[in-house]
Amino acid sequence: MMTSVDTELMRVLADPLRLQIVTLLARETLCTTHLVEETGAKQTNLSNHMKVLREAGVVDTEPCGRFIYYRLKPEVIDALAASFAELAAAARETVGTGRKRAC
Asked: What is the pLDDT of residues 11-43, one digit of tens each?
């Protein structure tokens, strides 16, 4: 069943730029400069989105000199995927049973 944490995570990932960032970070660890180049977003806008992703626990940071590298936390995505898998399983059980609430 979806929890409030799952709901918050879906809200965070519903933003197109944040979803693009997460998709990029799934492939490699990147710094802000790389993310600005890849997304075309302004640095300040990107930094605000990274703050949201950090606070939601979606990414980890790694300082490297004057740069900050971001790494996706796959366990967070796994947990969300598991919640969706539970929903799909519940829906499969309902299909064909004729179960519906009376009006």
From this structure: 999 999 999 999 999 999 999 999 999 999 999
Q: Which residues of 79-95 are buried (b: 16+ CB within 10 A; e: fewer)?
A: ebeebeeeeeeeeeeee
Residue 70's beta-bridge partner residues? 30, 61
Are 29 and 69 a contacting pair, CB within 8 Å? yes
Cα(16)–Cα(40) distance, integer angstroms = 13
Residue 25: CB partners within 8 Å, gap ≥ 6?
59, 70, 71, 72
In this structure, are residues 29 and 70 in contact, taking their beta carbons and an 8 Å threshold?
yes
The whole-model pTM stands at: 0.84
